[in-house]
Amino acid sequence: MLINLRDACAIAEQTNIALAAVNTPSLEAMRAAVEAAEETGYPIIISHAEGHESLMPLAVAGSLGVALAEHSSALVCLHLDHCEHLSYARRALEYGFTGVMFDGSSLPYERNVELSQAAAEMCSSFDAGLECELGSMGSRECGATSQGGTAEDAGAVYTDPDQAQAFVAATGLDILACSFGTVHGLYRGEPHLSFDVLEQIRERVKVPLVMHGGSGVSDDDYRRAINAGIRKINYYTYGVKYAGEAVRAMIDDRVAANPNDVIYWHDMTSVAYVTLRDTFAQVMRVFASNADSAA
Ligand code: 13P
Questions:
Q1: 160 in catalytic set
Q2: Residue in 81, 103, 160, 221 annotated catalytic
Q3: What is the pTM assigned to this prediction?
């Protein structure tokens, strides 16, 4: 069933877990995400990034996401990820999205506040939840392999805890994306998360917090971040990397066995689907593994 971003994150808050917010710019990815939620029993956030419009148009993501959610026994939030244009967000809400991330992180602070306030009004008229970002990851979401590295390489600006407090109060957002050492894309070297920054934000801000650049982080760091208030973890790059590797291995094996073997498109999508579903289910279990330590 389709649920609102606010309600999804409230469940995570009550149980001291984080929800996986997986980018799903293909039919296989969207189906895999919903099936992983059914298999694990945890709610899922299926995310469509504005930057993925060329991979899957918004109208398709909206119709497909709503249909899959409504036919599922799992709790599914259909979320717009990294949206920089209010007109695009409005269209998403009209298609039935139940959450929006308005990303004004590259704008001057005052302009980010102004547009985030407008996004909050728009979301509330559709009863959808709003996520906004303060600070900067230093690289944009689109899964390109040229991105990533480390937060330092990417030119990340960590979220300022005092400014975060003022930003939440001024905008009326529901959940806050913060920058504290993760980056979008592939990591080159170990990510170094600043838990000090995260804990300071948590002391000042009571809304659920969001980790972007969440794939490629160690299980220990996930658990530490969740204990420090992270309730939504955005996960894309490593999932599609594993799916690509699985497709390549399948083709290599079949060609080694028979150089004339015909590889059909559905052979590739089936392997990708299974890999994505299993990867999503596995990370969802890790993101829920602090549940027993809930107060
Ligand atoms: P990754 O590139 O680490 O998977 O992050 C995805 C993300 O943050 C989407 O908003």
A1: no
A2: 81
A3: 0.95
